[in-house]
Amino acid sequence: MKRAMIKDLGGTRTKEIDMLRWCSSTALELIGTAGIGHNFEILHGVESEYSDAIKNFFPALAQIAPMRSLFPVVYRMGPSWLQEKLAEWVPNAAIREMKHIVDVQERQAQDILSQKKKALNDANKSKDMNDIMSVLLKANMEAREEDRLPEDQLIGQMNTLIFAGHETTR
């Protein structure tokens, strides 16, 4: 974090530093490394749609909170693909923003999970994988079929871990 902040200052001594942004970015990098064995590279200046989605989650949730009495009705309306289509079609920017946030989280988690599965199948790479998600994934792959977590639950665990670790800085 120190090196990234110095680089951001660009040699000037009077620039304001947004410590909340730096702490939030550092928290995401730390939970990414220790929790799921993934480097988001935010501290190296790489823009992250995932980090932006996490940061915007609570503001988007606050905007749709007045509509929460409708959620059980929508939940009972049918399969998840239909619910997703309804969220796209509803004429409400806050609901569409929340759907975008959830889609970004889902896509990033699926990409990371696919990379981890490939790495675990490579004996040379799997020896060095000691992050929380790798341990969970190894145990899941070694479990009997009826005891395994389905992929959507693994993705849910990953998103929960990242979100909880990242949002502790707010």
UniProtKB/TrEMBL annotation:
Pathway: Secondary metabolite biosynthesis. Belongs to the cytochrome P450 family. Its cofactor is heme. It holds the Pfam family p450. The keyword Oxidoreductase applies. This is Uncharacterized protein. The lineage of its organism: Eukaryota, Fungi, Dikarya, Basidiomycota, Agaricomycotina. InterPro entries: Cyt_P450, Cyt_P450_sf, Cytochrome_P450_monoxygenase. Gene3D superfamilies: Cytochrome P450. Signal peptide: none annotated. Keywords: Heme, Iron, Metal-binding, Monooxygenase, Oxidoreductase. GO terms for molecular function: heme binding; iron ion binding; monooxygenase activity; oxidoreductase activity, acting on paired donors, with incorporation or reduction of molecular oxygen.
